[in-house]
Structures are given as C-alpha cells and as structure tokens.
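Dear support,

I submitted the protein below through the web form. The confirmation email said the job was done, but the results page showed an empty box. After a refresh the structure appeared. I'm attaching both so you can tell me whether what I see now is the final result or a partial one.
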Amino acid sequence: MKSLIFLGLILIFLGLTLVILTYLIDYLNKVSLKSLKKLPKFLIYVYEKDELTFITSPILIIIGLVYIVWFLFKLYNK
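What the results page shows now:
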C-alpha cells in the first residue's frame, strides 16, 4: 500500500512540475525548440510532425518503467 502512495506522490509531483514548466516557458519565452534540440537525446527528445510537438525525457521513461517492474515484481513475489 505504501508503494502505491509513493507512486501517486511521484506522479503528482511530476505532473505539477510539467504544468509549472509549461507556464514558465511561456512566461520567459527564452527556451526555444531549437535550443532543446541541441541537448543530448538521452536528456530530452523532441519530436515534431506537422503541428504536433512532443517533448519527453527518455531518462524519466526508463525510471518509470524500472519502478513499475520493481513494483510488479514486489507485488507478485509475496
């Protein structure tokens, strides 16, 4: 049960961080897609097609997948 609470808190924190980041980027307008594309791919991945822009962090995806696998392993090994 504590694992689910921890996962929920992490997801809430990540969501709030992303919302704050979008407002911060809009407000400052100093970070452009060109500067984000210059960062290493393992830090930030930018995908653009037509009018869709998708930005993600492969490190966060890997951390999330590892946590889910660890949680499922812990859940089914009782």
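Response: this is the final, complete result; the empty box was a page-load delay. The mean pLDDT is 84.
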